[in-house]
Amino acid sequence: MKVVAIIQARYGSSRLSGKSMRPLAGKPMLAHVLDRAKVVRGVDSVVLATSTQVENAQLTWLADDMQIAAYRCDNEQDVLRRFVQVAVVQGADVIMRITGDCPLLAPDVCADVLAAHLAAHDDMQLTTNDVTCSGYPDGTDCEVFSRAALFAADDATRQPLGRPTADREHVTLWMRRTLWHRVVACQSGDWSYLKLSVDSLEDFERVQRIFGYLAPGKYSLASTIAAVRRTQEMGIA
Questions:
Q1: Cβ atoms of 147 and 87 closer than 8 Å
Q2: In Å, what is the CA distance from 27 to each residue of 20, 30, 39, 84, 154?
Q3: Which pLDDT value is given to residue 60?
Q4: CA dihedral 30, 31, 32, 37 (to 10 degrees)
Q5: What are phi and psi of 45, to 5 degrees?
Q6: Which pLDDT score is estimated for 73?
Q7: CA end-to-end span of the chain, whole Å?
Q8: For the segment 158-191, what is each residue's pLDDT rounded down to a tens digit?
Q9: What is the spatial order of strands in the sheet that 143-146 belongs to?
Q10: What per-residue confidence (pLDDT) applies to 163?
Q11: For residues 29 and 60, what is the distance between their CA atoms, to the nearest angstrom?
Q12: Cα separations (Å) of 11 from 16, 54, 221?
């Protein structure tokens, strides 16, 4: 069985253009996501999935420099198609979906979500640490599903004229409505008030402050929370 972590990313953003390549703690923000994904226990391969938009080429160059496979698909909005194509090329049996705007992704949390999914032995199940209800901070979330579930979503949401819909753009919307959705809860308190994903300049500056108190290679959720507390103690949260 092959487990593939697919990181979806693009250069463009309506609220913070170029955020994936914005310098953060000495390297592009996306590099932090890729570095953390590489050490998730149980993941066999990490892949960057983006589109053929010209500006996205620099994302694939970054992945190449980091010796991470990168795929560019032809439709920016049809992210579900992108995942199907990567899953086929990679021979993935299980897919972990990660977004490129989470530089404080916690590999230990991702490993727990993956372990819960594998323990269920159910190909038609979506397993997540859904940050709207799990107690985990926004920006530490991931989703795990089987190749069979991905293909079922693709079949159920494919449009005759190929026009992307919300179900195609957001990958797991159909799964959330249709499949059993297992949510892994946070066991170390309720951190749902923390926003650690990056959508805006304000988000980026918050994460930048946290990185200022985070030692290199300290990727765990506990390390991130400790750094958050330091920013709060310094009055710069």
A1: yes
A2: 10, 8, 18, 30, 35
A3: 96
A4: 90
A5: -150, 145
A6: 84
A7: 42
A8: 877 556 689 998 999 999 999 999 999 999 899 9
A9: 69-73, 45-51, 3-8, 94-99, 143-146, 125-128, 180-183
A10: 61
A11: 14
A12: 9, 9, 26
Mention every residue, 6+ apart, whose C-beta is less than 8 A from residue 178.
Answer: 152, 153, 156
Residue written as token pair 């103690």: 233
**Per-residue confidence (pLDDT) for residue 158, from 0 to 100:** 86
- At 81 the pLDDT is 92
CA distances from 223 to 97, 108, 211, 214, 230 (A): 23, 11, 10, 7, 11
Question: b/e for 102-117, b at 16 or more Cβ within 10 A?
Answer: bbbbbbbbbbbbbebb
Please tell me the predicted confidence (pLDDT) of residue 183.
98
Q: Which residues of the chain carry a pLDDT beneath 70?
A: 14, 161-164, 235-237
Residue owning tokens 């400790």: 226
| pTM value > 0.70 | yes
| Structure confidence at residue 119 (pLDDT) | 97
